[in-house]
Design brief:
With 417 residues, this protein is an all-alpha fold. Helix content is 80%, strand content 0%. It has helices at 8-28, 34-41, 45-61, 63-73, 76-94, 99-114, 116-127, 130-150, 153-162, 165-193, 211-219, 222-242, 246-254, 258-286, 289-309, 316-331, 335-343, 349-376, 383-390, 392-407, 413-416. Helix 14 (258-286) packs across helix 16 (316-331) and helix 15 (289-309) packs antiparallel against helix 16 (316-331). The longest helix is centred in the middle third of the chain and has 29 residues, at 165-193.
Length: 417
């Protein structure tokens, strides 16, 4: 039986998406308790920025190694190990008694998370044909947005009811359980159903090319750098702000409770949900990724400019609209991987996906730290002014993303499928 024609591929996809869903909640949920951590552990905004960013440091730093290993040995076992590490990290986070344990736990989460998205993309390549790829990317973006949405109001209410430790402990335990589910679905059962499947690297066996040769070719490729910058501008600014400072910003500017502030963030995530599906559909009809992506990036740049121009006493409705627009742009970030799919051979998809993804999470590392350092320059009585000037950072980051979109070599969607 051909795997790309079997109904079992949807079980594979669904199981991988469930693990991805749980893991994505752990990316942004810590942003809900930023002020609580500062109070409980008696640390500054800069330290919280480091704690928030440490998982992104691990994530970004391991993207290329993860891509190289996955291209060479296949995605299944790396996806399983990544899920396990993320679960262990979340459990450790929930039991932390010092800021140093928080940092270590977030490093575990980032290390595990680094193996998830790349291998999910490779699993799509392995189990689905090219015609299904862009639509599945839209669905993947939707699931990511729903997961981030879950980490706003629902997670905030859970924290308000049970404290912040129990929710992180519970998700960690779920991820450890998912490790066993993924092993059954991805490794054990396919060997029984598909006689030709003997190892999870079956579809990815390739000539053992030198790692340095692969990296030199990657670094010299304009298209690879274009995808790096695209993700740097869209994903990093969005996740870096939402995951660390979005809730404190809303609480400070509009005198909201944590639950109310998380509702404002939720609208941005709803924009991302709509953006992922809508932009994928539009791109398929226009058959040109670059045109659509350039417009998306420009919209995000103007939205961050709007956040800066809103000043120290912004209009709630203006901020709400801009959050939705920024989220809408982030939802379109899956187009980065459509560009990768159409521009590179299947044996390089993993490493280039890792390189592009590294762009987004490199900026997600930098933004919370720089933003927190800017806030530390202002006393609490003038913190509104700190947030105002802090928005210069995502403006610069999003401009780099727009440059990346302009650097993309024009390809037609139909060529990719």
């Amino acid at each position: 039986m051909n795997k790309q024609e079997s109904g079992y591929r949807w079980i594979v996809y669904g199981s991988a998406l469930l693990a991805y869903f749980l893991i994505v909640t752990q990316r942004t949920a810590p942003g809900l308790i930023t002020d609580q951590l500062m109070k409980d552990f008696q640390v500054t905004g800069a330290v919280i920025g480091v704690i928030s960013s440490i998982s992104f440091v691990a994530y970004a730093g391991l993207q290329i190694p993860s891509g190289l290993l996955s291209d060479r040995f296949g995605p299944n076992r790396f996806l399983i190990m990544g899920t396990l590490l993320t679960g262990v990290g979340s459990i450790l986070y929930s039991t932390a008694e010092s800021e140093y344990v928080l940092m270590i736990s977030r490093f575990f989460v980032g290390t595990g998370d680094a193996a998830i998205f790349i291998n999910l993309i490779l699993i799509l390549t392995q189990w689905f044909n090219g015609k299904e790829f862009i639509k599945l990317l839209g669905l993947l973006s939707l699931v990511s947005s729903v997961a981030s949405l879950t980490a706003t109001v629902p997670f905030s209410l859970w924290i308000s009811y049970a404290g912040w430790r129990i929710p992180f402990l519970s998700i960690g335990i779920m991820l450890v359980i998912m490790t066993g589910v993924l092993y059954f679905v991805l490794v054990w059962n396919p060997k029984r159903i598909f006689k030709e499947v003997k190892e999870d690297k079956t579809d990815f066996v390739q000539e053992r090319e030198s790692v340095w040769k692969i990296l030199r070719r990657l670094i010299a490729t304009r298209q690879a750098w274009a995808t790096f910058l695209c993700h740097f501008g869209l994903v990093g600014g969005y996740i870096g702000f939402i995951g660390s400072w979005g809730v404190p910003y809303a609480m400070q500017m509009f005198d909201m409770t944590r639950a109310e502030a998380s509702q404002l963030i939720m609208y941005g995530l709803m924009g991302a949900m709509i953006g992922g599906v809508f932009i994928s559909s539009i791109t398929s009809r226009m058959k040109s990724i670059k045109k659509v992506y350039s417009i998306v990036h420009l919209t995000v740049v103007l939205s961050w400019v709007g956040m800066f121009l809103s000043g120290v006493n912004p209009s709630f409705w203006l901020v709400l609209f801009l959050f939705i627009a920024i989220g809408f742009g982030n939802g379109a970030s899956s187009l980065t991987f459509a560009i990768v799919r159409e521009s590179f051979s299947v044996k390089e998809v993993g490493v280039v996906t890792g390189f592009a993804n590294m762009g987004g999470f490199t900026s997600a590392v930098l933004l919370p730290i720089i933003f927190g350092s800017v806030l530390d320059l202002f006393p609490q009585s003038a913190i509104n002014l700190g947030f105002h000037y802090g928005f210069i950072i995502p403006i610069v980051f999003s401009l780099m993303g727009f440059i990346g979109a302009l650097l993309v070599k024009e390809r037609k969607v139909e060529q990719a499928i």
